[in-house]
Each structure stands twice: as structure tokens, then as C-alpha cells.
């Protein structure tokens, strides 16, 4: 007796975007993650490893080790990231933070340009995390990177105007960041789009939590966004960015070395990051910004298997 498999019929798709002069494609799926039997998943998840423009203050030794010889040189660090196999470089401009070096927009723009010129993969540029300062520095960075088709963020409801205008004028994409609320996510995407930046040049960051630290709520937001996109909501049909590293390495299970009963720190820390990334891949994220090259390697092994056809 023949068995008929019920399949969901989606009416829309996630926007496909292409970053950098290299044209790295992201998005474009017409079904939920890895359900190849229901639709098309033309592009695999992409990974980026973070590079700080000044030595990070809160990296544990296990995280510094792979970059020990380059951690004070963002250009050399970015090259090392490419050697480790990341699809993109994520440059975090922490030197501009008022509590760090309070570097000027011109200073960080010079660094961003040097990094972009030194690598042959697309660049993500992340501000210092202070909304007002990011609103000052990121437009200058966008100008310096004209022609690089960079992904610039994070754009929030409080600073989107200046950053969006610069990104649109100089040919970049933006990361729209909203705090774990599907309606705020839609609203911010609409505001950015109303300034003239097409929806297919926006990627959104819904804010994520690490494994064991609110991951289930972030998962549900991503899942709802993907279902909305596939049923025709264009304001939700943008690729999703997940800041895996910054969350996973906050977890005490990853950063605390003095708890031997939890097992070797290196093993659990890398697994914490890789498992967090794997979870959000299943939820629908497209771009994974991570910190340890071994975590990227393990995550990519999962994606390799998940991208094999299960059509029937």
C-alpha cells in the first residue's frame, strides 16, 4: 500500500542576499530549515569569526590561544580567521567604546578599510555596542568601505537613521537589531526600508541567548519569523544573524576553568558554542558570528550533514 507523505506548501521565500565583492550568497530558502523534501535551500549557513580592533578584555585563555600571535593586530587576526576557514570576517570596533579607548570614527574607519583590503572574504563590521557612538562611527566606516558590500551593524531604533543613510549611499547591507520581539523586529525593518534601503539589503538580529540561557525564547522568535517569511510577510523575509560567540562565551560553563567536575574547559566551551549555533541553525538562522575556530569546524560538520538531500 502506497503511503502519501503530507508536505507543507509555502507561498513565499526568504530573501537572497550576496555580500562582498565575492558575492557570497545567503538566504533564498523556500522551506523551513533542512526540510529539503518540502522546498529549496539553495545556500548553506555561513560562519564568521570575530576579530577585535583592540585586544579583547574578557577573552578566556582558551579563546585567546588560537589567535595568540595576532591578537594585537586586527589585520593579521583577520587573515588568520580566513586561514581557519570562516566564510566571513566579523570586525568588532570595540576601541571606539567610551569605556575602552574611545577611538574616533576616523581611526576605526582606517582599521576597517585595512582589514577589508587584506582579506578575500566578505566583511561584517560590528560597532562598539553603544548606540549613540555607533551612530557616529558606522557612517564614516561605511564611506571608507565603499564598494565592499559589507554587512554593517548593529542598527537599532535609536540610531538607524544615520547608519541606514550611509549604508544605502555606499552600497552596504545592515544588521537590524531588536530585543526578542517579533513586532519590534518588523517595525525596525519597516523603518529602515522607508528610508530607501531595500528589504533584501537588511539582515536582522533578534538577539539570542546561549545554550541554557534563554535559548528557547530566541529559538521561538526565529521560528515565528521564518514561518512569517514563508507565508508572505516580506518584513520578516530577511536573513537572520545570530551572535553566537558573544553569548556562548558569557556562559559560566564555557568561561569558568575552576570547575573540574564539569569536565575539561576546552571541550565544554567549544561544545557550548557549537551546540548553540546548531540549535539556531535548526530555528532558521543564516549567519553565525562565532569566536573559536574549532566551534566553527564542528558546526560546519553538522551543516554538511544537514544539507544532504532528504527529498522523497
Protein described:
There is one protein chain. This protein is an alpha/beta fold. Helices cover 40% and strands 14% of the residues. It contains eleven helices and ten strands. The protein has helices at 61-64, 74-83, 105-118, 131-144, 160-170, 182-194, 215-230, 244-248, 252-255, 265-283, 293-306; strands at 16-19, 24-27, 46-52, 88-92, 123-126, 151-155, 173-177, 202-205, 241-242, 287-290. The strands form two sheets. It has an eight-stranded parallel sheet with strand order 8-7-6-5-4-3-10-9. A two-stranded antiparallel ribbon has the order 1-2. α5 (160-170) links the parallel β6 (151-155) and β7. The chain is globular and about 70 Å long. The chain starts with 15 loop residues before the first strand and ends in a 6-residue tail after the last helix. The model has no long low-confidence stretch (mean pLDDT 94).
How is this structure best summarized?
The chain has 312 residues and is of the alpha/beta class.
Shape: globular
Q: Level of helix content?
A: 25-40%
The main sheet orders its strands as 8-7-6-5-4-3-10-9
Q: What is the CA-atom radius of gyration, in angstroms? A: 19 Å
SSE order, as H and E? EEEHHEHEHEHEHEHEHHHEH
Query: What share of the residues does DSSP label as strand, in percent?
Result: 5-15%
Biggest beta-sheet profile = 8 strands, parallel
Helix count equals 11
pLDDT under 50 segments (min length 5)? Answer: none
Report the structural category: alpha/beta
Count of DSSP strands: 10
Instruction: Give the rounded overall mean pLDDT.
Output: 94
**Cα distance spanning the termini:** 16 Å
Amino acid at each position: 500500500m502506497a503511503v502519501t507523505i503530507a508536505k507543507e506548501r509555502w507561498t513565499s521565500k526568504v530573501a537572497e542576499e550576496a555580500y562582498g565583492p565575492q558575492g557570497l550568497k545567503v538566504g533564498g530558502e523556500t522551506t523551513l530549515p533542512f526540510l529539503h523534501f518540502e522546498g529549496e535551500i539553495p545556500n548553506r549557513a555561513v560562519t564568521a569569526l570575530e576579530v577585535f580592533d583592540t585586544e579583547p578584555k574578557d577573552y578566556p585563555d582558551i579563546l585567546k590561544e588560537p589567535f595568540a600571535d595576532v591578537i594585537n593586530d586586527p589585520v593579521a587576526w583577520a587573515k588568520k580567521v580566513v586561514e581557519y576557514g570562516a566564510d566571513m570576517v566579523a570586525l568588532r570596533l570595540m576601541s571606539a567604546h567610551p569605556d575602552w579607548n574611545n577611538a574616533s570614527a576616523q581611526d576605526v574607519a582606517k582599521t576597517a578599510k585595512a582589514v577589508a583590503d587584506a582579506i578575500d572574504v566578505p566583511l561584517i563590521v560590528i560597532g562598539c555596542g553603544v548606540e549613540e557612538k555607533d551612530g557616529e562611527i558606522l557612517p564614516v566606516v561605511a564611506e571608507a568601505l565603499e564598494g565592499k558590500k559589507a554587512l554593517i551593524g548593529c542598527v537599532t531604533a535609536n540610531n538607524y537613521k544615520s547608519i541606514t543613510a550611509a549604508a544605502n549611499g555606499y552600497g552596504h547591507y545592515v544588521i537590524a537589531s531588536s530585543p526578542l520581539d517579533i513586532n519590534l523586529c518588523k517595525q525596525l525593518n519597516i523603518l529602515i526600508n522607508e528610508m530607501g534601503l531595500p528589504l533584501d539589503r537588511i539582515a536582522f538580529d533578534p538577539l539570542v541567548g546561549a545554550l541554557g540561557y534563554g535559548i528557547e525564547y530566541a529559538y521561538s522568535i526565529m521560528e515565528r519569523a521564518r514561518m512569517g517569511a514563508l507565508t508572505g510577510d516580506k518584513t520578516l523575509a530577511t536573513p537572520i544573524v545570530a551572535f553566537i560567540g558573544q553569548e556562548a562565551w558569557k556562559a559560566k560553563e564555557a568561561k569558568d576553568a575552576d570547575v573540574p567536575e564539569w569536565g575539561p574547559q576546552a571541550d565544554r566551551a567549544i561544545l557550548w558554542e557549537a551546540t548553540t549555533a546548531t540549535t539556531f541553525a535548526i530555528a532558521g538562522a543564516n549567519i553565525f558570528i562565532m569566536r573559536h575556530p574549532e566551534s566553527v569546524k564542528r558546526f560546519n560538520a553538522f551543516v554538511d550533514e544537514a544539507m544532504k538531500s532528504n527529498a522523497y
